[in-house]
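User: Could you walk me through two proteins back to back? I'd like the raw sequence and the structure tokens for each, with a short line separating them so I can tell where one ends and the next begins.

Assistant: Of course. Protein one, sequence then structure:
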Amino acid sequence: MDPSKSPSAPPAGWNAGEKAGMDQPPPYQDYSAGYNPAPGYPNQTGYPQGQPYGAPYQAQGQGPYPGQPAVTVQPTIYVAAGPLAQPLPDYLGYSIFTMLCCCLPLGVAALVFSVNTREANVSGNRPQAERSSRMARILNNTALGIGIVFIVLYLVLYITVIAVSH
């Protein structure tokens, strides 16, 4: 590979001797030397005068501009909710029964809502627990109704087939 053809190669008319005086960076200049704050503003050193390093900051009663009140920032408070004092019913046993004995798809859905109710009870989320408990009860009742209808239809058909065959 030809180094003169690489994308980072210097242009064709570039003279390496031009850069000889630019090897050292410019000297450091202290721009804060001789800085005087505008009239009416105190000297800003980072800490109020007379404030020892590491001591808590004491508000001076004045904001960033003269005559403006200081803004007090409140600390953030985290509230962790505990379990509900009166947990809602989760219908877990009912859900397992309807899943195994009545209607499998609705029983599985009811089981999911039962577990969600249990988790909401533990985390203290009452509105979520109420919604999940109500939905688990509705699905369980529906699954039980479908299961009873199928059992009754099966018995009626079974009895009629036996009566016709004899």
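----
Protein two, same layout:
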Amino acid sequence: MPSSCKEIRAALAQCLQESECVMVQRHTAADCLRSPLAETLPTKCQQLKRGFGECRRGMIDMRKRFRGNQPITFKSFEDTEKSGEGYQLYAGRSAFAGAVRKTDGNEPDPVDWRELENEKYRKQQQEEEQKKR
């Protein structure tokens, strides 16, 4: 297998080995990936399974033949999970990273652009009146 999917494959294997499906119920990892048991896997394992599938499909996708398959590294996936920032499991930057600002509820309302224009106009009028005097 090409190196573009090795890291996510290893992360999926580790996640399956640590899952309840393998550890407690004593199913094989292959059985846990199939339909009736796949829904009982933790969300992290389900995301890794989907990402691995997309990575495998990306290897034969003709639209990616020049740039190559670019899956996200699992280490950066873990870092974003710990920091709480948004992440995208496969290929590229998160679409939502940095879009949400944390607020405490005491922020001032943004000033309307019309109000800014009115203030500029009033200031000009005052300057003109002062020049006439």
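Residues 113-132 form the longest helix (20 residues).

Let me know if you want the two compared in more detail.
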